[in-house]
Amino acid sequence: MIDYKDHSYLAPILKFFDQIGIAYQLTQITEPMFLPGIRIQDGILLIDTEHLLYPGDVIYEAGHLAVAPPEVRPKLTDPIKEQLDFDEATHEMMTLAWAYAAAIKSEIPLEVLFHPDGYKGQHLQIMQGYQSGMYIGLPMLQWLGMAYDANNAHQLGEKPFPEMKLWLRPPSIK
């Protein structure tokens, strides 16, 4: 059985963030937090290890930064929903797909990301959906050029999701 609260998972997550350019800072957080021990402020993921309950939540919150438009990312601060260019549900689906791919890439067990204390009690359904290839959020990542489904990946000579072509959302094409 995997201990989804084990803080040792934080090290490979942070190493992965260093590789892809997600800004983070280990610090004490005194401002209100939506998730214990995590806050987005000015485009930086603040992580308070004393209050952090679930290392998998760090991946998910980083996904909010990764899928935000690059012109918004440096200013993104909790609560983020007013600062997004898509509706909240679309952004959440993109974040979920990104987090799944990030967990795979950083070799974090999916049970750490999709822990039983999150996802409004739907953690198993979400995890099983992704494991069976039902990639909620992938169409939006594909539209942004960040990842591709199997058919499009083959046509473009790319690797299919959960491989990512880009870990950070590119500038918008106008």
Overview of this protein structure:
The chain has helices at 10-20, 55-67, 88-105, 110-113, 123-131, 138-143, 150-156; strands at 24-26, 38-41, 44-47. Strands 1-3-2 form a 3-stranded mixed beta sheet, with helices on one face. It is globular and about 50 Å long. It has one domain. Strand 2 (38-41) and strand 3 form a beta hairpin. Helices cover 39% and strands 6% of the residues. The relative contact order is 0.15. It is built from 7 helices and 3 strands; from the N terminus they run H-E-E-E-H-H-H-H-H-H. With 174 residues, the protein is mainly alpha-helical.
Secondary-structure topology with pairs:
Elements: H1 10-20, E1 24-26, E2 38-41, E3 44-47, H2 55-67, H3 88-105, H4 110-113, H5 123-131, H6 138-143, H7 150-156
Parallel strand pairs: 1-3
Antiparallel strand pairs: 2-3
Helix pairs in contact: 2-3
